[in-house]
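Note to self: keep these together.
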Amino acid sequence: MTPSRRCPNGAGLSAILLAAVLSLIQADSLWADGGYDCQAEENRGKPTTIEFVLSQKWRDQSNQIKHALLADSDGVKVRLRYYPLMDPPTNIGIGQCVPADVARRAIHEAMTHSGKIDRLIRQDILPHHWIKIGSTDTAELAWTPVSPEDLARLTDPSLPTAQFQELYRSLAAPKERHLPFGMGSQTIPEAPPK
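Structure:
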């Protein structure tokens, strides 16, 4: 057996700390910068993808559901999936670049086929051009309860896209922070209006 080698003067610890700092610097570049511009030349015209998780009872009506979501819209793709047991969650998530008319149609179809929507998915974790209905691939901590009255405000046909998106972001923002180890939660104060 050979004796273990040690770095003199803590050089090993320094190397580990340097590697950790470099990792953090690189990880910082992975975070979204919030500067995505939906109207930029390269982002205009990107299709909106609607991912809809349905109960098994709707399987034989998939063509009608797709047709209702596509209704007179260019640039919309629909992906239907089926929840294996019972009913999927009653949530919806709308990306920041989704036009208001497409979002309202998705909300209507979600209410029709899920019975209700009682949770909104935080927008900062969603792809910019996506709508997720009945999502099972997002964490429940990213779901915010929504009242029927607030949902009615979202479906108001007089809201243009910019105001729709602003309202969605405010309604989907977390209202409480869950504490670790099951120690309860704290209310998050509302941000002052801009």
